[in-house]
Each structure stands twice: as structure tokens, then as C-alpha cells.
Amino acid sequence: MPAARPSLRLLLRGLLAAAPIAAAVACADSTASEAGSTSDAGNGADSARDGSKGKTDGGDTDPKTTCEITRAYGEACGSDSDLNCGASGFDAWCEANDKAINSEAFRRAQALCLTESNCDGAKRRDCEYKHYNEETPTASQKALVAAYCETCAPSDVAGCTKRSTTYDPTKGIKSVDDIFIAAWELTDDIVDEIKTQCTGATDAGSDVATCAKTFANCAGDIYLARLPDCPK
Is the pTM of this model over 0.90? Predict the structure, then answer.
């Protein structure tokens, strides 16, 4: 597996410039404290799962696509200049990024959680992670978690599977690890590549923590390789 790199969890929280959310949102993610249990992702979960439109609080428009929702959120919580690749390049970049990176579960979470009431990055993540508790994993997502747990926690596969796919809001967003992010937020083809490249290794580490770190570094490399560049 690759040498140490930023973990997938940190990459997807927006701590690097290439993350798929506006820079202002990335700043909020990296500085906000853990969200409390008052954030509620349950309301409207069924309609979000059906692909319903997302909206920002008090807005006149009702964006349909993930990128329209993300732009509206970035503008409501920051400004045009905060959008990744800038206001003029964001739409093209976001469309490419959405196709290359995002799972359907992630898109539904964005439709539900990218609202002005969730401008705080920690609160937004709490909303998204709660929503995943309402989702059903794909075959690829299930296979990745199974392979990860057999690699990193062979003596507790059942417990590992539950921890890797279920969010506990009482523990907050910092309790989420890289396998949870990989299993829920990425396209099936990326998930399949992560399963092939980042699980099953005999040198993954002698303990769960070391194995999890090795997995995170490997998955982070795969994620970075799939990120599109800003349009020129």
C-alpha cells in the first residue's frame, strides 16, 4: 500500500483545496466544533432518497442537481469567490467531480443537508452522516466493508461492519472514520478499486488502528487520482 498521505476522511471534509465543497465551507469544516445531537437529518429523509429537490432556507429557487445545490449553498454560506475553481469555473468542475466521485447516497445527503441552517460545517456533516443511517448500501459498498473488516478486524467482523456503516450522533462527527466515508460517499467503481487495492494486504498492520491508517492512506491516494482539475 502507498506511503502515508492525507486520509480520505480529511480529504472529503475539505481540508485540502481540491475538496468538492466551496472553500468557505472547507474552512468551517476544519474549525467548527463537533455538532450536537440537536441536528436532525431524519426530517425529509424519504423525499431526499427519492431524489427530491434541495433548497436553501428562504430561497426563491429550488435547485435540482447536486451542483446547483452546492453552488446555492456556497453562495448562501460564503460568496461566489469561495466556490472551488471560482464562480466561472465551478459549474464545469462540479459536474465532472459529481460524475467521477459522488455516490447516490452522497447526492441525496447533499439535497437534504446543504441548507443555510447548516452553514456550520460540523452541523452539515452531522446531518449528512445521520442520513446515511437511512440509506441501503450497494453491493459494492457492502463488499468493501466486508473486505475491510476481514482485513482489519478479522476477530470481530460483525462489530466492525456495524461500526463502519452506522453513525452515532452522540459521539459526533469526529467518530467517523475513513471506511465509513469510503463506503457511503464514493461511486461504486471507486469503491471497487479501493476494495481491490486497499484491503486483503498481509502487511496492513498488526492492530486495528495501524490497519485503519494504512487503509486511509491507500483510499486517499485513489480518491485524489480521480479528482478532476479546474477547467482552463
Answer: no
